[in-house]
Amino acid sequence: MVRLSTAPLRALRTRAAPQQAPRFVVPALARSFRISAAPLDKAAPTAQPKTPPVAGAPAGNVDLMTGEVVRNADIDPSRLEIELTQSPKTIPPSSQLTFGRTFTDHMLTIPWNSTTGWGAPKIQPYAPLQLDPSATVLHYAPTLFEGMKAYKSKDGVARLFRPDKNMERMTTSAARLAFPDFTGEHLTTLIKKLVEVDSKWIPTDPGTSLCAFPFPHPD
């Protein structure tokens, strides 16, 4: 199974069913960085896969090694589940922000496996990932990630900086690595919701921003 913390990839060849599926994960962290962007409530045009999958529909092909019917369910924002933390952390002042060390209260995860495709996205309390020591990713696997920036403008509106370009790069990288396919706009919608949930963490001092890093990892 694969889990996205926060986004998926495109398949270039027939693959054996993974022993441990990937998952996309999107943690958010506060950092010092200056950006400009578009409002979260205004969808930016997002790069689409060359062959966009149909959500929940069977792909019609069979895994050559397992004989299982492979379904190609896309990421579906309407299935989002939200579990808010019961132990919110204290938000440090901007002067104490350290890149890669100051994380928000929540993260977005999206499970995937070769039989059913992408599962229900979930925004949940930020927590360590659990990996088996034999997880393939620790020994052989290539990977990818994107760094997305969010900030608040003078009118208090949370904005993302060019998320369509992040998704264009991520879907291209996913295709090259034969990772599960996905629609970039759907993932962007979920990341916007994550930023909305943790919007109080967005620093407002000049030169600061909130960063979201979608990346895949085995489950």
Please provide a written account of the structure:
Belongs to the class-IV pyridoxal-phosphate-dependent aminotransferase family. One of its GO terms (cellular component) is mitochondrion. Keywords: Pyridoxal phosphate. Helices cover 13% and strands 26% of the residues. The chain is built from 2 helices and 13 strands; from the N terminus they run βββββββββββααββ. The chain has a domain of 145 residues: Aminotransferase class 4, branched-chain amino acid transferase, N-terminal domain (D-amino Acid Aminotransferase, Chain A, domain 1, 2-Layer Sandwich).
Keywords for this entry:
two-stranded antiparallel ribbon; D-amino Acid Aminotransferase, Chain A, domain 1; 10-stranded mixed sheet; 26% strand; 13 strands; 219 residues; alpha+beta; BCAT-like_N; 2 helices; 13% helix
Topology:
Elements (H helix, E strand, L loop, with lengths): L1 E3 L17 E10 L6 E2 L18 E5 L6 E3 L9 E2 L20 E11 L3 E2 L3 E4 L22 E5 L5 E3 L2 H14 L7 H14 L11 E4 L2 E4 L1
Helix pairs in contact: 1-2
Keywords: Pyridoxal phosphate
Protein name: SPOSA6832_04709-mRNA-1:cds
Family: Belongs to the class-IV pyridoxal-phosphate-dependent aminotransferase family.
In short:
This protein has 219 residues and is an alpha+beta fold. It contains 2 helices and 13 strands.
Mean pLDDT: 76
From the N-terminal CA to the C-terminal CA, the straight-line distance is 6 Å
Supply the CATH superfamily name of the domain at 1-7 and 62-127 and 147-218. Aminotransferase class 4, branched-chain amino acid transferase, N-terminal domain
The number of helical elements comes to 2
In the CATH scheme, what's the topology name of the domain at 1-7 and 62-127 and 147-218? D-amino Acid Aminotransferase, Chain A, domain 1
Question: What percentage of residues falls in helices of 4 or more residues?
Answer: 10-25%
Q: How do the SSEs run, as a string of H and E?
A: EEEEEEEEEEEHHEE
Q: List low-pLDDT spans.
A: 6-20, 31-39, 41-59
Evaluate the radius of gyration. 17 Å
DSSP strand (E) fraction? 25-35%
CATH architecture verdict of the domain at 1-7 and 62-127 and 147-218: 2-Layer Sandwich
* Cα shape: globular
Sheet with most strands: 10 strands, mixed
Q: How many beta-strand runs?
A: 13
What class, by secondary structure content? alpha+beta
Region (Disordered): 41-60
Cofactor: pyridoxal 5'-phosphate
GO molecular function: branched-chain-amino-acid transaminase activity
Family: Belongs to the class-IV pyridoxal-phosphate-dependent aminotransferase family.
